[in-house]
Structures are given as structure tokens and as C-alpha cells.
Amino acid sequence: MPSKQVLQQKTNEVESIAQLMKQHKVVAIVGLKKVRASQLQAFKRNLADKVYMKVMKNTLIRKAIEKNDGTSGLSKLLDYLAGSNVYLFTDLNPFMLALTLEKGKVRTTAKAGDIAAFDVVVPTGNTGQAPGPIISQLNSVGLPTRIEAGSVWVSKDTLVARKGDVINDRLASVLSKLGIKPVEAGLSMKVAFDEGLIITQEQLHVDIDGTKQSLETAQSEAFALSLGTAFPTPENAVALVQIAHRQAYGLSVNATVPTKETIGDLIRMAQMQMLSLSSRVPSSEEKEKETVPEKAEKG
């Protein structure tokens, strides 16, 4: 049986964890699978003033949650207490925290059973491998090959695994020989508890480029709508004045209303109309030519 001293240490640790949960808005669980010690230390060092991070036993976290739950809703985290984890206590926005963790990831070689972090495409080109068993190994994972200048070449770009696929031993070996690293190693948030709200790993993933493009599209469409409805805002005021000026100018020209701005165009229009009209009226010489045949017939 554990000694009283050990029991007291565990009781104190549970109490300390419970206090951390009370002191911070966000409690996050991060899986330790494929995490390098150097990455863990770097993250600890970079965010030491904003995030308290500690590897703890799930049983201690469970006891702290049970001790601290009350009306906080922390019991929602109990379903995620599995595997080896590091626990984060912070007041940072959980989405910003997740993005910070993502930036710290590095690509690494795959082992059998690893999950592809992205679509894995082997590009066309020289493998740098001499002809031999490598040809059958490349062909076995679907790579078309040819021999050129004493080396084995991949004939065309080939998709060998999609994002989320399990990489088998054969493919892992081939990718390693080709220097392709299809696995990401680093800290990934499994879940975050933010003031009563549970945010899962899938929800924490933010497509920065996609979100930016959506916002740009929405802004463009809103701007066009505000112009179409002549709804003034600080952003479109100049454009609305320019549109109004063009419309007023066009109206005054079409209605031949002379102003300081339109008088020049009105005179030019009048001249063009005059020239067009005069070109349709026969000259005196043309009139005379028309009457000559008539006189001849009378003679």
C-alpha cells in the first residue's frame, strides 16, 4: 500500500491541478504521440509566460476535474483522458494556441502504421538509385519507372497516398529511400475546454488561406451590394460620389443642360451633329449636275 507521504503528495498535486483549472480560462489536452523532446521544450520556452504546460497522469487530472467540476462543466473533458498527454493551462484563445502548435510541427520519415499528413505525390525525376531491386520496389507501390543514364527514374508524377491514409511498411520503405517525409511530428491539440465550451480537434483546425479568401469574397460582394443600393459607408463614400458625378454629368449632357463642366462637350456634340447634317445636304454643284440631264432632254 502507498505510504501516507505518497498519498499526501498525490493529494497536493490534485489540489494544485484543481487550482490551475480555476486560474485559467482554457484547459487543453495535447497528445504526445510522435512528439520530440526538443519540440516540447521549445514550445515550453517560447510560451512560458502565457501557457503553463505539464505532462500529468490522466488519473490525477480525473481526480482534479471531479474535485473542481461543480458548475464549471470540466467533466466534459473526461471522455478525452486517454493515452499519453501533456496538459496546457492558459488564457490564450484556443484557436490561436492550436495555430501556434501547428507552426511548430516538422515533417519526418514514415514508419509502418503512420498516417499521411497530406496527399503524397512522388514527382517525376531521377531517384538517384542504381538499377536493381529498387525497380521492383518502386513498381510495387505503383510508381512507373525507366532507366536513364545509369539511374532509375520515376516516369510521371504519381499519387501514392492520400491525406489520412495509413502508410504500410512497403510504402514507408520506398518513401524513405526517395527522401520523402509524409508524416508530421509535433504537438496537436486533441481538445480544448474554453469557459464551459468543448472544442474538438476538428473544430480547432482553421484553414487560414480558405478563411482569408472567404472574407475577401464576402467583403467584395458587400462592397458591390452597397454600391448597387447606394448605401453610404466610410469605405464606399468616394466611389458613390464618383458614380453620382458620372450619372449627373451624363444626364446633363443628354438633356443638353449647359454647365461649366458640360459646355465643352455640348459644343462638340453640336458641331458633330451639324457636320453630320451638312454631309446629307447636296452641295450647289451636286444640284447643278442633277438638273443638267433634265435640260438636255427638253432640248
What would you note in describing this structure?
With 299 residues, the chain is an alpha+beta fold. The protein has helices at 4-23, 37-46, 58-68, 94-103, 133-140, 169-177, 201-204, 208-228, 237-254, 263-280, 284-298, and strands at 26-31, 51-55, 85-90, 106-108, 120-122, 125-129, 145-148, 151-154, 158-161, 183-185, 188-194, 197-200. It has a 5-stranded antiparallel beta sheet, with helices on both faces. The chain is flat.
SSE inventory with pairings:
Layout: H1 4-23, E1 26-31, H2 37-46, E2 51-55, H3 58-68, E3 85-90, H4 94-103, E4 106-108, E5 120-122, E6 125-129, H5 133-140, E7 145-148, E8 151-154, E9 158-161, H6 169-177, E10 183-185, E11 188-194, E12 197-200, H7 201-204, H8 208-228, H9 237-254, H10 263-280, H11 284-298
Antiparallel strand pairs: 1-3, 1-11, 2-3, 4-10, 5-9, 6-8, 7-8, 11-12
Helix pairs in contact: 1-3
Keywords:
299 residues, Molybdopterin biosynthesis moea protein, domain 2, single chain, five-stranded antiparallel sheet, alpha+beta, Alpha-Beta Plaits
Q: Given the C-alpha coordinates, what overall shape results?
A: flat
Our count of helices gives 11
| CATH architectural grouping of the largest domain | 2-Layer Sandwich
Helix content: 40-55%
Query: How many β strands by DSSP?
Result: 12
What top-tier CATH class of the largest domain fits best? Alpha Beta
Domain module count? 3
Largest sheet: 5 strands, antiparallel
Q: What is the typical, i.e. mean, pLDDT? A: 86
Instruction: Estimate the strand proportion.
Output: 15-25%
Global Rg: 38 Å
Record the strand order, biggest sheet. 2-3-1-11-12
CATH superfamily of the largest domain: Ribosomal protein L10, N-terminal RNA-binding domain
Distance between the termini: 148 Å
Indicate the low-confidence ranges by residue numbers.
Answer: none
CATH topology of the largest domain: Alpha-Beta Plaits
